[in-house]
Amino acid sequence: MVRRNFNALPGFGLTMGFTLFYLSAIVLFPMGALLLRATGVGWHEFWEVAFAPRAVAAYKLTFAASFVAACINAVFGSILAWVLVRYHFRGKRVIDALVDIPFALPTAVAGLTLANLFNQNGWLWQFFAPFGIKTAYSEIGVVIALTFVSMPFIVRTLQPVIEGLEREVEEAAATLGAGRFRTFIKVVAPTLAPTLVTGFALSFARAVGEYGSVIFISSNMQFKTEITPLVIISMLEQYEYGAAISIAVVLLIISFVMLIVINFLERWASRYQT
Amino acid sequence: MAGVVRRKNQGSTLKSQRASEESPFAKWILITAALCFVTVFLLLPLMNVFYQAFSKGWQLYRHSMLEEDTIHAIKLTLAITAISVPLNLIFGLAASWAIAKFDFPGKTFLISLIDLPFAVSPVVAGLMFVVLFGRQGYFGEWLDAHDIKIIFAVPGMVLATVFVTFPFVARELIPVMQQTGSEQEQAALTLGASGWKTFWLVTLPSVKWGLIYGVILCNARAMGEFGAVSVVSGHIAGQTDTIPLRVEKLFNGASAASGVAAFAVASLLALLALVTLFLKTFLEWKTDRDFARAQEAGPAVEPPPNESDTVILAKSLQ
Questions:
Q1: Nearest to A89 among B31, B129, B251 (CB)
Q2: Chain A window 179-218: which residues touch B at a Cβ cutoff of 8 Å?
Q3: Are residue B37 and residue B69 in the same domain, yes or no?
Q4: I need a labelling partner for B301 at 20 to 30 A (CA). Which of A147, A186, A229, B214 fits?
């Protein structure tokens, strides 16, 4: 992009002023208020309520379920991205468009329909029933919902990178006698790995904050199937403002850390692309 | 949260390159695995919404749609969306103009700040407004004294929706405006057009598809938002229930009819998702085609921005 003297264009003061005002009013001011309120809780009490056993159980479930969901998406999302870029088959374009469903379908609807499919009268439960696995209203239900909402991230980050792979390199490997599997492991996988990690982090970050879909499919039992955002809401409903704010700040800090990690990963991943 | 209008390789010449292809068996396994995953996690959940909604017949579907509380929820959702989307549209235009057309220090940081709402859990977002305007909040007493209700009322729900949909339009517009550059605007100004005229007649037409794309995504999220709105709504039937909150209430209802009604109301949102996907795919196809045509037309076209597609996409996905 050619950058020349931009000063000839009018409206910088107006648009910049409005941008900063609106950003402050909608995002920065409310966020600051939450953080300020948390400092009013007091360090000792903050520690006590933010890491109370019920909250800790919820953190553990949230992170474990988000991690498992991101792993499932890493495996199947990679396969899906590969298949969508490299192979030609009937209905490919439709499937490509369908990958965005979790972005477009409101989370409440996702939770509702997944709970219905995976509960004990559900159509998909029949495949789990012979193994005695409870799907909805258990930790597995939480994983199912989180897998759904975070699914497009890995597919959509990987697709353009797979498109950009130079097939000549793979051909060279084949010409030099490497089998297809070996070529994939030694040549293709290392190029895709950084992007996959970025997609994994995006997927994980999305899952950690998710609320809507999970509460439908989980039994929401304290210490067992209760996710962190739900603890915040129950604290709020019991007028435990200090606890709600403290746990929210923990979640907010984790989001910030994830944001920084993702930014770092993106820079790292973009170095591996031509 | 989706990406910038994606640009796929249109005319990539894929000859049959045996040496760099998987065996037919491996191919079959991979395609089957991908299709199974898509069926279980995308296709079945979506179709199930409509299946369940009509499972007890058209009469019950119609009946659950015409319930007073449901109609109110639909109206409220439309009203909240009608306020939040234009607000974020105006912000998106202002922010992308300032960011794409001018150089100033801290630009990257400003873009990160605009992205912030994508990183925050919706429940935490809702809580922020409770901290500000709730009864125990900073402005609680003042609002009480003046008899203004924000939390557990519509203004709070609008604020929460504006927060969660904040980045959508700006995120789509910034890269598009950066790509078009500012030579055309400079030419218009040199020829004597006013700033506003230049914006309406030169800038807006050149970014219109990116703009519509952003608005569509913003709209879908605004209508479907659950977590943030749930925190500030108060769940008063016929007063502060939006469509997603109404779905939850019906889902928790005891009767079988209420279960079906939950799916009936949810089918509205599923339809919204399908329309959104359709428009999104159409716009991507259109920008692909325009780009291909522009490239055929000659080398005068600006090359795509330096930032790789992945980076832009990944950022916008946050």
A1: B31
A2: 180, 183, 195, 198-199, 202, 205-206, 208-212, 215-216
A3: no
A4: B214
Residue with tokens 């055929």, as numbered in its chain? B296
- Gap between the Cα atoms of B105 and A16, Å rounded: 13
B81: Cα separation from own chain's centroid: 11
Domain residue limits, chain A: 52-270
Angstrom distance (rounded) from CA B282 to CA B274: 12
Q: What is the mean pLDDT of chain B?
A: 86
Distance CA B141, CA A120 (A): 49
Per-residue pLDDT of A184-243, as tens digits, reads 888 888 889 999 999 999 999 999 999 999 999 998 888 989 999 999 999 999 989 999
* B194 falls within a domain: yes
Which of the two residues, B229 and B318, has the higher pLDDT score? B229
Asked if A226 has any chain B CB less than 8 Å from its own CB, the reply is no
Amino acid identity of residue B268, one-letter, is L
CB B38 within 8 A of CB A98: yes
**pTM value?**
0.88
> Reduced to 3 states, what is the DSSP secondary structure of residue B226?
coil
> Are B42 and B100 part of one and the same domain?
no
With an 8 Å Cβ cutoff, are A232 and B124 in contact? yes
Tokens 């692309």 -> residue:
A273
Flag whether residue A145 sits within 8 Å of chain B, measured between CB atoms.
Answer: no
Locate the chain B residue with the closest alpha carbon to A161: B310
Structure confidence by residue, pLDDT tens digits, B251-293: 998 788 888 999 999 999 999 999 999 999 999 888 888 888 8
For residues A240 and A244, what is the distance between their CA atoms, to the nearest angstrom? Answer: 6
- Provide the number of CB pairs (under 8 Å) joining chain A to chain B: 337
Instruction: Please give the structure tokens belonging to residue B23.
Output: 């065996």
Per the structure, the complete domain to which residue B83 belongs is given by 57-317
Q: Per CATH, the architecture of A52-270 is what?
A: Orthogonal Bundle (1.10)
Q: Which of residues 47-106 of B touch A (CB under 8 A)?
A: 48-49, 52, 90-91, 93-95, 97-99, 101-104
| DSSP calls for B68-83 | HHHHHHHHHHHHHHHH
Does residue B279 sit at the A interface (CB-CB below 8 Å)? no
Task: Tell me whether 0.95 is exceeded by the ipTM.
Answer: no
Length of chain A counted residue by residue: 274
| B92 occurs within a structural domain | yes
Number of domains into which chain B is organized: 2
Distance of alpha carbon A129 from alpha carbon B191, whole angstroms: 74
